[in-house]
Amino acid sequence: MDVNNIASLVTAMANQRTADAIGIAMLKKTLDIQASSTLTLIDTLQQPAAANPPHLGDTIDTSA
């Protein structure tokens, strides 16, 4: 093998390693953002949509 070919191969491998590291970092950040968004969505679902007035449901009409 030629020295230039070896140097080119090493450079390409280093560039690929850097690209892989960047891709993994972006994936981790995306997963963190999705987890945060999911927790926010779950928190909003746990709150009741609308509460009934306090007088509703106190009595049952049995004579009807």
Low-confidence stretches: none
pLDDT averaged residue by residue:
86
Question: Which class do the helix and strand fractions yield?
Answer: mainly alpha
Helix-strand string:
H
Main beta sheet, described? none
Instruction: Give the total of beta strands.
Output: 0
Give the CA-based shape: rod-shaped
- Helicity, as a percent range: 55-70%
CA(first)-CA(last) distance: 99 Å
Query: How many helices?
Result: 1
Q: Radius of gyration from the CA trace? A: 30 Å
Beta-strand share of residues: under 5%
How would you summarize this macromolecular structure in one to three sentences?
The chain is mainly alpha-helical and 64 residues long. The protein has one helix at residues 3-46.
